[in-house]
Batch of 3 targets.
Target 1
Amino acid sequence: MTPVREQLRRMVGGVLCAAFALVGAAFLLVPDRVLSVFDAWSRSAGLATSAGEPAGLYVVLTVAYMYVVTRLAWSMFRRPDDPGPARLLVHAKVASALLSFGVFFLRQPHLILLANGIVDGSIGVLVMLLLKGPAAREEERTA
């Protein structure tokens, strides 16, 4: 891996790690506020609102997921030459995006689901490009 590509993976891993940790903390500490903000935006966009307060199990599962993706991003930052954590992060973010889009279109058109699908899908694509971009293919040919 070239030094530039390694620095890019390190930088993206660091930024994602910080963002995931902050979002996870918000989901843990003020889940009702996060949901109420998206409910208000969803209502004003003519979309569905949530069914009520975030339940304990869902908060626990959400925070656990955010811990795992934070840890994967931290591993990308610490070892940008190891593609394993980045590959797992792609799987996590693409799965989250597809599930969010699926629930949005098939069950509940809530803005938070659409936003999560777009954000997590974008993160998944970004990390995938870091793994499989033109520079990575060139490195594979010369190795």
Note: The chain has six helices and no strands.
Target 2
Amino acid sequence: MGFGFSLYVVFILFPSTIVLTIIWLIKRKWKYGRFILFAWAPIFLLLALSLTIKFFTTKKTITRDDVYGEYVIDRTKFSGKQANWQYNRFRFEITKQNDFIFYLMKNGKIIKTYHGATTFIESYSQPRIVLGLNPALEDIIEEKPTLYRAPFSFYYVFNSPKFGNMFFVKGQWKQLNK
């Protein structure tokens, strides 16, 4: 809050609260208690509103344990035939042993598996990964994806030379309904 608000609290709200509390204790009339309540209620409501907004807008803090798991194409970023095709064709996994496993699929069956290593760059506040890629994957994904955080989740974006941006979100692969 600003300087004017601080002056209001220190020179008006606190002294009037002390005076009204003393009068309330002496006279035992509820109207003085109500004055105190109505003076402080907007401040507590603003504080509660501020904390609620902060909770819903603060980006999620990502740890290494959050990064481990299976990833599929996020079809909510771009929907349509291309996103569905990518979803049915590509997925990957990062294991706790820092292995990177990329799956090429067709009709829900894994037709090719590529293995690599995952390295974490420690100089960033959020875990940045560098993937040791098989040369066959260099046309599909890049080795340094960008991590984007949302208030309750995160996703990776790979700048693919062949497909443009590919969005991967953590999740289990499931057969699409046709």
Note: The chain is about 35% helix and 30% strand.
Target 3
Amino acid sequence: MDELLAVIRRLPFDERLRLIERAAHDAAEDTPRPGAVQSAAPSLLGLMADEPELVDRMCSAAYDARDTARMRTVDD
């Protein structure tokens, strides 16, 4: 690696800059990118489409919790 750096340092300044820009560009092109992100989260109902009884129980539990929950007051 030291030999490579010595050769690069002997290049004229403009050529060194072009070499560095090209190396940076090539490295960016070769860098793996994460997969595409979905714009919306998957629906819980869609994830449990084959479990209708479980969805019914979850909805029932959510409604029960909502009915018994104390709502906090909002100060103006």
Note: Residues 13-30 form the longest helix (18 residues).
